[in-house]
Amino acid sequence: MMVSPLVVDYYSDILCVWAWIAQRRIDELNKQLGNKIELRYHYLDVFGDAVNKIPTQWHDRGGYDGFSTHVVESAAIYEDAHINSDIWSKTRPTSSANPHLVLKAIELTYSCKHSIELALKFRQAFFIEAKDISNLDVLFAIIEQAGLDSVQVNQALLDGRAIAGLMRNYQQAKALALKGSPSYIIDNGRQTLYGNVGYRVLLANIEEQLTKPSSEASWC
Question: Distance between CA 164 and CA 180 in Å, rounded?
C-alpha cells in the first residue's frame, strides 16, 4: 500500500538570515528522507516593512550598519551560508513582499517546484551577490535568466491572483500565531518548530512522526 508523505509546512521570509542558514538543513532533509516527506513552502511577513523596521529596531545599535554586522556574524559559523558584507549596509531592500509576491506568481504560472527553485535563486542573489531583491526589475531579470517567461509571470501579478495567494499565506501565519522565520509546522499544526533549529532536532521530530502508529491514542 502506498503511504502518503508526511507534510511539513515551511514558513519563511525571503530576507531572513536564519531561513538562509536553514537552506542547507532543508536540502539535507529532502536528501535523507526523499519521498517520505513533502515540504510545502509558504511565506510570512518579517521584513515586509524593512525600510522602517530596521532603522527603528536598530536605532540604538548602529542602524543598518549594526544590523548588517549582526547578520554577517550570525552566519559566520555556518560554512554553507555565505554572506556578502554589503547586505543591509549598502544593499538595503525596502520589503520582502515583492519577492514573496513574485514567487507566488511563479507558483501559479508554472509550479511549486519552479517557485522553490526561484526562491533559492532570489536568496542567493541577495545574500551572496548583494542584489536588491525588493526591486522588481532585479527579480524579473533573475526570472529571465532562469528561462521563465516574465510576461506570463507578470500576468499573475496584474490579475490579482499572486497577491491573493500571498495574503492567504500571511493570514495563515497569523492564524497559526507563528513567531517568525523560519517556522516548521508538523502533524497538521500539532507541532511547531521555530527559529534556528538544528538539523538533528528537525530530523528527530520528523522521524518520530514518520514512525508513530496512525492508530496511536491521544493522551489528552
Answer: 21
